[in-house]
Design brief:
With 242 residues, the protein is of the alpha+beta class. The protein contains eight helices and seven strands, in the order ββββααβααβααβαα.
Amino acid sequence: MLISVALPLPLFREFTYAVPDAMAGRVGVGSRVVVPVRGRRTIGLVVGLAEPTPEFVPKDILAAPDDAPVVHENLLDLARWMSDYYVAPLGVVLRTMLPAALSAVRAPEPSRKERRVARLARELPSLLERDALFKRAPKQRAVYELLESLGGRAPVEHLVGQLGASASAIAALVKREIVSMEQEVVERDPFAARPAMVSVPHELTPAQRAAVHALCAAGGGESFVLHGVTGSGKTLVYVEFL
């Protein structure tokens, strides 16, 4: 199968590529495809099928990243109109219509945040053993017993920042192989600090109620102008009508 691809280049033409049989089910009009362009990979958009020509051997697409088209026919028609009206290459117009993440060859990945976690490497059940090990290191003993009370492991930033543990004592315990240090990936919730939104019901005023009734009673195809100053509740009328 041959396809016509619009690329985000300052050229008023589409490019022809071949679709391998293994990808044929994932490619259609409006689909994104990764194609080779001058030795690099570029995202293009399929705008139609192409006819074979005997003197030209098209290159294969490299990937079809989507299960379904990302641009529907009506949006593609709008892009063609904009291209003609504003005298802009179709591929450039389509790039401006798509979210930035869909214009990248690789999907953006959030950066991983890691933290150091201290873990008890040795158990010291005997008080005599602890007295001998920490005879001249009371801060190390305090850190050891703090870790013990926290279940044997805790983030270093929590120990030092919130619990007041000595960073030098933690380092000394690691050097003595009483505590081990490991890296842990932090699970981040982007909405954790956002306050929960409580839905508040809104009562329509008599004027709003009259406007909603008028809209609902009207036949199809009629046009209305909703008049009101800023903050008078025009949006609520629109929401209630929907």
